[in-house]
């Protein structure tokens, strides 16, 4: 991308590694979700930082069982060659009941190096 302007994407145009992670996460398939991350990856969610695949595996297992919710991809954006944002709408039994979250992905060598989840 030469103009450095964010481009709207669709779920079909997100990189395979992101769609693989999102599909596995939605299905609570930790084993498949973890394969989308680099060994040194970092996830930041709800004010907590998880570094490395073992910490991320623990976070994935907890997030799959802590609350019951539905998740719907409402938008996607590519900000440059390695950065993507996937916006999701969640509804469930967590405090507040609904929230829109941005999943900000940084890719390296075809895998997720960093994921920041925030409103």
Strand content range = over 45%
Distance between the termini: 26 Å
Low-confidence stretches: none
Q: What would the principal axes of the Cα set say about the shape?
A: globular
Work out the helicity level.
25-40%
Structural class label: alpha+beta
Number of continuous helical runs: 3
Tally the beta strands. Answer: 7
Could you tell me the radius of gyration in angstroms?
Answer: 14 Å
Strand order of the largest sheet: 1-4-5-6-7-2-3
Return the string of H and E elements.
Answer: EHHEEHEEEE
Largest sheet: 7 strands, mixed
Report mean pLDDT, rounded to a whole number.
Answer: 90
Summarize the structure in words:
The structure is a single chain. By secondary structure, this protein is an alpha+beta fold. The chain has 3 helices and 7 strands. It has helices spanning 16-26, 30-34, 53-66; strands spanning 7-9, 37-45, 48-51, 69-80, 83-92, 98-108, 111-118. Strands 1-4-5-6-7-2-3 form a 7-stranded mixed beta sheet, with helices on one face. The protein is globular and about 35 Å long. The relative contact order is 0.22. The model has no long low-confidence stretch (mean pLDDT 90).
What's a quick, concise take on this entry?
25% of the residues lie in helices and 48% in strands. The chain is built from three helices and seven strands.
Give the helices and strands, then pairings:
Blueprint: E1 7-9, H1 16-26, H2 30-34, E2 37-45, E3 48-51, H3 53-66, E4 69-80, E5 83-92, E6 98-108, E7 111-118
Parallel strand pairs: 2-7
Antiparallel strand pairs: 1-4, 2-3, 4-5, 5-6, 6-7
Pfam family, one: SnoaL_2
Protein name: Nuclear transport factor 2 family protein
Domain SnoaL-like: 18-114
